[in-house]
Every structure is written in C-alpha cells, then in structure tokens.
Design goal:
The complex is a heterodimer of chains A (about 250) and B (about 350). By secondary structure, chain A is of the alpha/beta class. Helices cover about 35% and strands about 25% of the residues of chain A. Chain B has one domain: ABC transporter involved in vitamin B12 uptake, BtuC, CATH 1.10.3470. At the A-B interface, helix 2, strand 6 and helix 3 of A face helix 8 and helix 9 of B.
C-alpha cells in the first residue's frame, strides 16, 4: 500500500493531500490541467521530495528506501518516453530488470511482452514502432520491473495521452488485470470515460486539493464535475456494464 | 537511427571479440612497420618473437621497433580507445548520438587549460613536469563537461539543441582563450600548442604510454558497472531514476571518467578530432546501442582507427608527417554530415 499523508508541494500548489492506494485496486486520479496530478504521482514514487507531509510505502517512508529497492516495488509508466537509440524491443523491456537482475530475466521479459501484447514486436527496433506500440513496450518494461514483487505498485502518468481509443483501452485493461492480481494501480487520466470504465475508485483533484474521492458513481456527479471542471454534464449508465457515462450537457 | 539489420533474438550474433582482437594485432604490426626506415611486417613480428626468445632479429630493427614505433602504436591504441569510449559515454550521458568530446567543449576545456599551464605557469615552475600539464588538462575537461551538463542536460529533459549550443559556446570560448594565450606565447610554446590543436603521437615513448594506460584501466573496470545504468539513461534521467539508477551519482561518475580520459589523452597527444563521434556511431550500427557491447567494441575500433590514421599520416607525405587530427577529421566530417542529414530527413 502507498499512503500519502498531508502532502504539500509549494511550487505546484499541492496542499494537504492525504490518500491511500491499496493493493488490488485501480485508482484513477482526475482533474483539470494544473490540478497537481502529475506532481502527486512524482511524489508517490519518490522522484520528488514534498515540502510537507510524507509518502509511506507499506508504512515506511518511501524516500528512506535505496533507489534500487524502491524500483522493485514501484514502477512508473510515463506519458511518453523519447528514445532515439535503436534498441530492440526486447532490450527495452529487459531494462526493467536493471534493479534486480537474475537468471530468470529472459522468461520474465518474455512474459511481460506477452502480457502487454508486444511479443510479436520483440525483434523490431524501437524507433520503428508506432506511438501506441511504443507505449505498450514501456508498459511491458514496467511489468518486467515489478515481476518479482509481492504487492507492487504501478503508477501510470497519463499513459494514454497520445493513443487511439483501442490502444487506450488495451493499456488500461492490462493495468486492471494487474490490479486484480494484487497490484496497487494508480493512473492519472484525463479521459473521464476511461476512468469510469476501468477504475475502482476515482480521486478528483482541483487546485492542488482533493475535491472528491470514491467509486465512479459517487464521484462522477454533475455538481462535483461543475465545481471541478466548470462544465455541465449529464451522467448515464453504460448500457453494457452499468458504469457511469459522462456526457456533456 | 537504424541498425544495419534486425536480428532475430536467439541468433543474435556479435562480431566475435577474438576476431576484433586479431584484427587489432595485425594493425599493430602494420602500424609498427610503417615509417621512414623500411621494416617489413614480418620483421616486426620477428622483433616481437625475439623478445620471447623465439627468433633472432636485426639489432637495428629491434632498436627502432621497440623504442620508437611500438610505444607510438601502443600510445595510439590507448589514445584511440580513450577517445572513442569518452565519445560513447558522453553520447549516453547526454542521450544524444551527436555528442563528442570535441563538440561539447571537453577537449577545448582540456586544451585551454593545458595551454594556460604551458604559457602562464610552466615558465615559473620548471620542475613541475608532465604530470602538472596532464592535471591541468584534466581540470579543464572536468570544468567544461560539468558546465555543459549543468546548462544543457542535468534535468534530462533539456533540448538536445540547448546542450549542443552550450557545448559550441564553451568550445568557442576555449578557442578564443587559446588564441589569447597564443598571442603572448613564445616560439617554443606556440609550437607545442599547435601540436595540441591538431594532435600528434610524435611525442610518444614508454613513459607517456605508462602515464595514459592506467586511465584506460580505470575506464575498463568502471565500464561494467556504468553500462546498465547508461542504457537506462537513454530512456531519460527520470525513467532511469524510476528503474532504480542513482542518476546524480552516475552523472558525476561519467563526468569525472570522461574528463580523466579526455584530459589525459589531450595532455599526451593533443586533440584528435572526431574519433569520439564517429567510432561509437559506427559501432552502434553493428552491435546495437547497449553499452555492454558498445563500450568494448568502441574502444577496439577507436584504437584501430587511430593507429591506422597515424600510419597513414606518417607514410602519405614522407618524410614529412601530417598531424593525425587532419586525417581523422577529414574522414570524420563527411561522416558527421551524413549522420546529421539522416537525422533531419
């Protein structure tokens, strides 16, 4: 479990954020641009030091962990990674094993590629891939990184920003499966529709503070969305699975 | 950038290290046989065998090969290996295949510091010797690289253009400062400064080889530890951090190691242009960008290139001797332009 306790970060205006992310659930962090979503994520993974409060990883301060140990427990999938060098896809995925190399790495890398749906690309060079393929390769890299951790934490920072709808759902389906298998998954998402379909809980951030937190039906509610984004919405039930469907009014 | 071929995973074949080693040994022999006095490759082999008591060599050949040509060839190999490796390391550090000790101001910094020592300090400290010169070249290289890293690349998010511009600016500054020093230098100092600016292995002897070889040893030992982290750094400094790399520590280590390599080689043989740029890029096209392979093969190829260029420099205009930097730069610039064009188009 990752726990944020009264986090604040002056430069980006994050203030008094307390949240818990438990293993087994996928939590979406939503909110307008500049609400502090990405800042929160970089604080959670220990990349940035908060000005106040602390982040606990299973009860221990995340910043007290050596970076290799932290990397075995927390994986981060960034919005987009630029990589100009002609690594093969399997080499990129194998970079995930850097913190904990071992004899099973080849099998782990293969499984991760399979899970992310990029096994058929294994021998291609990275710069020749499409945007969606690249993002799934990085997803495989992060899965390989967390392969031998019990109760690992997968943080996704707007992982679908540059992907087409099919790719967006593909990435989030993999993330949700991981959550069912015991990971704590935290995803910064811009698309409320994606959040509604895939998240167990949604955290709504606004101006650096938690505006609302709860199940999709609790949070995706016209008055909250008006306060958060300043837009008028109507909420319908999805005809196939009953998840909320946000429609601009 | 593309690789020559996309190899299937299991049948991934690297050029066998043995083959590369053998080719390097042949180049060594050829390099030692090139020069004003005619000594055939077989005679060189005979001289080497004689040292092991396996053959008898002509005393004249023995004297020339052992005390003049061999130290020059070995120095060329160490020098080339160091330059090519620093190029590979800097390209990884800055995530940019166009990085090069010459372009980023590392060599410029080393040169201006070495020139400053020669012109300003050496006349007052006649007993300081070659070590002081090497130390000042190291300090200059360290300062220049650290400055470029601070301005252009520390966050890992900076634009490559910013980085190269910072390097170009520092290089220009170093050149201007060297020009200033040139204006107040005496004749002998001017001669030794021209030697640095174009590079020459002319001053080689076993002492300079012994001075430079430990740096290569340091590089060889640290390469194994540096390589995985550098691979991750190619994804970006943030991503490397997420993967468990201690990024600031790795960056500091890289800056110090490259400064050591560039400073040391500039102090003993001047700047030999474009080896650091061309060699790692060529090697990357064959073995891929993974530093575990890139570093050793770059070292081998850099060593070969400098020894071959030096042999050409000695033979082509004999009995005169071209500066070796002229040869490597004449080969390197067209390659560099080709690389640029491919990146743009």
């Amino acid at each position: 479990m990752i726990e944020a306790r009264d986090l604040s970060c002056r430069r980006t205006g994050l203030a008094g954020v307390s949240l818990r992310f438990r293993c087994g659930e996928l939590v979406a962090i939503c909110g307008p641009n500049g609400a502090g979503k990405s800042t929160l994520l970089s604080l959670l993974c220990g990349e940035r030091r908060p000005d106040g409060g602390e982040v606990l990883l299973d009860g221990r301060p995340v910043l007290a962990l050596p970076s290799a140990q932290r990397a075995r427990r927390i994986g981060v999938l960034p919005q987009a990674s630029s990589l100009a060098f002609a690594f093969r896809v399997d080499e990129v995925v194998a970079l995930g094993r850097l913190a904990a190399p071992g004899p099973d790495d080849d099998a782990i890398v293969r499984r991760a590629m399979e899970e992310a749906g990029v096994l058929h690309l294994a021998a291609r060079t990275y710069p020749t891939l499409s945007g969606g393929e690249k993002q799934r390769v990085h997803l495989a890299r992060v899965l390989a990184q967390l392969a031998d951790a019990d109760g690992a934490h997968l943080l996704l920072d707007e992982p679908t920003a540059s992907l087409d709808p099919a790719q967006q759902h593909a990435v989030l389906r993999v993330a949700r499966k991981r959550a069912r298998a015991g990971f704590a998954v935290v995803a910064v998402l811009h698309d409320l529709g994606l959040a509604a379909r895939h998240a167990d809980r949604i955290v709504l951030l606004r101006a650096g503070r938690v505006l609302a937190e709860g199940t999709p039906w609790e949070v995706l509610e016209p008055s909250l969305l008006r306060r958060c984004y300043g837009i008028e919405t109507t909420i319908l039930a999805h005809p196939s699975d009953g998840t909320p469907l946000v429609v601009a009014a | 950038m593309q690789r020559a071929a996309e190899l299937p995973i299991p049948a991934r074949r690297l050029p066998p290290r043995l083959l590369v080693g053998a080719a390097l040994a042949c180049l060594c022999v050829l390099g030692a046989s090139a020069g004003a006095m005619a000594i055939g490759p077989l005679d060189v082999v005979r001289v080497l065998a004689a040292q092991l008591g396996l053959a008898v060599a002509e005393p004249m050949h023995e004297a020339v090969v052992l005390s003049i040509r061999l130290p020059r060839v070995v120095l060329g190999m160490v020098h080339g290996a160091l330059l090519a490796c620093s190029g590979a390391l800097l390209q990884g550090l800055f995530r940019n295949p166009l990085a090069d000790p010459g372009l980023l101001g590392t060599s410029g910094g080393a040169m201006v510091a070495a020139a400053a020592w020669t012109v300003l300090a050496a006349p007052h400290l006649p007993d300081a010797g070659g070590w002081a010169l090497a130390a000042s070249a190291f300090a200059g290289a360290l300062g220049a690289t650290a400055l470029v890293l601070r301005i252009g690349g520390a966050a890992g998010r900076a634009e490559p253009a910013v980085l190269l511009l910072a390097g170009v600016a520092i290089n220009a500054f170093a050149m201007a400062a060297t020009g200033l020093l040139l204006a107040i230098a005496d004749d002998a100092q001017i001669r030794s400064m021209t030697f640095w600016s174009l590079g020459s292995l002319g001053g080689s002897n076993w002492a300079t080889v012994l001075a430079l070889a430990p740096i290569l040893a340091v590089l060889a030992v640290s390469a194994r530890r540096i390589a995985p982290g550098l691979d991750a750094m190619l994804l970006g400094a943030r991503e490397a951090g997420h993967l468990g790399v201690e990024v600031p520590r790795l960056q500091r280590l890289l800056v110090v190691v490259t400064a050591l390599a560039v400073g040391g080689s500039v102090a003993v043989a001047g700047t030999i242009g474009f080896v650091g740029l061309v060699v790692p890029n060529l090697v990357r096209m064959v073995v891929g960008p993974s530093h575990r392979h890139l570093l050793p093969f770059s070292a081998a190829f850099g060593a070969g290139l400098v020894v071959a260029s030096d042999a050409i420099a000695r033979v082509v205009a004999a009995p005169a001797e071209l500066p070796i930097g002229v040869i490597t730069t004449l080969v390197g610039v067209p390659f560099f332009l080709h690389l640029l064009r491919r990146r743009l188009g």
